[in-house]
Design a protein that fits this description.
Two copies of one chain form a homodimer. Chain A is α+β, with helices and mostly antiparallel strands. Chain A is built from eleven helices and 28 strands. Chains A and B meet through strand 17, strand 18, strand 19, strand 21 and strand 22 of A and strand 17, strand 18, strand 19, strand 21 and strand 22 of B.
Chain lengths: 449, 449
Amino acid sequence: MNIVLLSGGSGKRLWPLSNDIRSKQFIKIFKRPETEADAEGEHKTHYESMVQRVYRQIKTVDKDAEVTIATSKSQVSTIRNQLGNSVGISVEPCRRDTFPAIVLVTAYLHYIRGVSLDEAVVVCPVDPYVNDDYFEALKRLWELAQSGTANLVLMGIDPTYPSEKYGYIIPKDKQQVSKVDTFKEKPDAETAQKYIDAGGLWNGGVFAYKLRYVLDRAHQLIDFTNYADLLNKYEGLKKISFDYAVVEHENDIAVLRFAGEWKDLGTWNTLTEAMEEKAVGDVRFNDTCSNVHAINELGVPILLMGLKDVVVSASPEGILVSDKEQSSYIKPYVDAIKKQVMFAEKSWGSYRVIDIEENSMTVKVTLKPGHRMNYHSHEKRDEVWTVISGTGKTIVDGMVQPVKQGDVVTMAIGCKHTVIAGKQGLQLIEVQLGKDITVSDKKKFEMPQ
Amino acid sequence: MNIVLLSGGSGKRLWPLSNDIRSKQFIKIFKRPETEADAEGEHKTHYESMVQRVYRQIKTVDKDAEVTIATSKSQVSTIRNQLGNSVGISVEPCRRDTFPAIVLVTAYLHYIRGVSLDEAVVVCPVDPYVNDDYFEALKRLWELAQSGTANLVLMGIDPTYPSEKYGYIIPKDKQQVSKVDTFKEKPDAETAQKYIDAGGLWNGGVFAYKLRYVLDRAHQLIDFTNYADLLNKYEGLKKISFDYAVVEHENDIAVLRFAGEWKDLGTWNTLTEAMEEKAVGDVRFNDTCSNVHAINELGVPILLMGLKDVVVSASPEGILVSDKEQSSYIKPYVDAIKKQVMFAEKSWGSYRVIDIEENSMTVKVTLKPGHRMNYHSHEKRDEVWTVISGTGKTIVDGMVQPVKQGDVVTMAIGCKHTVIAGKQGLQLIEVQLGKDITVSDKKKFEMPQ
């Protein structure tokens, strides 16, 4: 099957583990099932992120599944780091609501990946916390679209309570697969109960269609010839939702009923329910703690005593201590916190801000073996590198020099520079010096030959 | 009056704010009363430590009080930073129980500070959380000793409940000042109630005597001539408590009853009761928190939601989140944490560890204006300094050089080095490189002429 995972969101609700660069789907807090390689001690980490978990589950259900992630530029490095190179990535140049996004990834599948117009694709959020039966259902959804059951086939989740959080799908009958009668917006609890009594299902944001169907509709609304052309025009596209542009105009819609377990891990409360261990990282509990979960990404210990129904989360960006139920109200508090991205995962490795002063910033840079950062310069700051581990070479204004632990390289304003890690990788402490230090002060250049 | 403050303890119970270097009495968490200078905006910090608070209170009650701190070497820099140069400091070369410690400071007062043998002194712990009336009582205690009421005059605190935490003093009568009948060790609650019914008072560890009295007893038990001689012999002295060596042999003891407020701030629970604000540092609360106190010494925000009766404390050493009552059981958990001193206050400024790797450590060093670190070398590590603010000069193997922001100095193993801050102070990032990096790898030298 072809499957598209929609990977968006800034994940403010999971602060401080998510930030402007790392969305919630990339946080590694789920215990990965042991593999043979683990038994042989080949792996150090036993945790996987939501996106890794979902990808693994898809491959378990259908090892030939073609997976494509529809995302923004800022997530590409992390996706490559976490899923490798076999996954397809369709990159939105900017955010333009769901219809342009789904058209873009559909065009990507057809024009770039060569998927036939007569083939179906399933579109699904990147972060459902579910069992393998959910992906079996996705496969069935794909087969229904492929066999022409309807122009659009949705997944309807059997509701477990009259939730106000979801839209409802009202099917025409009670069969496993049914035509859709109507859609209902997110209701209040009382109305939700009426929908449920009428056989309504939660709309989980999952649907399948043949490429031709969406591209035909796209050509009616957008003037473009192929993927490259669409990409060029993307910034100028009207913001319009898939529901408004497609679903509301379609009479031939089917729904597949899914009655398995399904969790939307959008808040700390629901996320910790899915954790198999009570802690990730250096966390100590005394024996009077109950229903406490903690994630510690800092290098120092956390000690928890006498707490009940609490989540603790610590990262280089900040520390959250919250009653689990209260944690769902986090967003306005996170909005009020002044943002300074303190860590980031890049294709070449990672960086972490370790000190901030008025006219300087100190960063630890970790390069993966053989990788390098961009060849670049700054206009408002000098930099000093001190290599703390590994070997490699630096290029400074075109001059190449081997470096090892203890070597120091100084780069004045305007000087072009990069560092390339050797076989063991390389770590360095970068001291940035100047007024107005910002990540945007960066000019990139071609690597010198 | 002459007053000696006994300043000891590692303060494990107040982890992570106290560490092997910073004891609880030096943590700045008490709101200082506003002064005229504050009103004019001259002061930035409105917090004071326990030792600063006690010192301020003593001076309020008796502006001519001669204050001496009896302490260990590791606290001298911090005491000078917090109390300045007018306070006397008697330094124990090593820990030898309370009798040697009290003899040492008594000898210091007589032989070094020239206090007459016929003058009295009050000895008191450095960390009672009390009002000014307590220090009025201390003054009265001193006057009682001075006027020869008894060889030893104790303070007895009117008990508010049958505590198992304190020893009890049973007076002969119910007068404000009474002779002492007997002393009782820390009892169980039932026995404590009996002592209280018999008029017993808590022993708060405060007493007054004339110097001659303690020095006479000292000469009976220890062979020494003067302060310098005692200091030389200190390490060889027998460990013996003041109670065992002096109090048990003395029949002429009086007790002064004190009925004012008195708190022993030894645990997070009692400490937070004394905090006038619910937070120190960048801490945000949602409106469902109640009776929550937090201290944040990290540079990132802490967000607290839906908590009740909880204390949160974060420092570069770790993070504590505890139910207030449970926090008194912290000690074994702190004992189990591997110690790495992550920050320290020195006479010349401060340092903070900002990164630790297997074969490197990165430290931020802040030098006060005009101050310098020791001239020293290391046997197992190279170091690289990058100046991030201020100006000054470095001396490396005798060679003096001016430095400013952005300058880099590299020091190989064995190389002698120091840095002297200019008028604005100086900050630098120090990268330490080598195996087995420890604070003990340090050889000190005389400054070159």
